[in-house]
Design brief:
Layout lengths: L1 H15 L19 E4 L3 E2 L6 H16 L3 E2 L7 E17 L5 E16 L4 E16 L9 H22 L24
Parallel strand pairs: 1-3, 1-4, 2-4
Antiparallel strand pairs: 4-5, 5-6
Helix pairs in contact: 2-3
Length: 191
Amino acid sequence: MKKTAIASVFLLAACAGGPDMVYRPAEQKLPQHIKRIAVRPFINKTPQFGLEEKLTLKVIDEFLKNGEYGVVQEGGAEGVIVGEITHYILTPLQYDVNLVPTVYKLNVLVHMRLLDRAANRYLWEEPAMQATKMYSAPTMPGGLTEESAREFLWELLAKDIVKRTVEGFGSVGSASQKKIPGDRSEPAKAP
């Protein structure tokens, strides 16, 4: 009888928290020794020319706007953003009666990592960070050019990269599994 009474008290105490009890994982901030971030120029692994420069500049601008970490050249940084543009897919979705595309979908995937220079290892990795924009052709009312749609995607990706770095694991999504390398991680490779 005593055991069931004690168990009942614990059960009631556990339930007393009610709907206010929500699991909140601890924030995963960067190590304290990282005060300055560098953004290594992106690598473009797509046949589309000139994407890497615009995305690199947009990410640097976004880090400057955020202001939580100083943005410096790689030699003076404790953390380095390393990225590759892996996919650039422009797909026509709708056509007019003459089979001219009127609506497009632009999808860009980037492989992102944050290098801790002191430990020579990656602190986080997003293998398929994705940004997508559906837009009307420039000949349609309110339509965009492909370049304008790209600028929109660079803005989205830059915000996600900064958010992922500043707010930590799980703050943005990736099209494939997120991972934070542990003791089994490979050392970072120098370019």
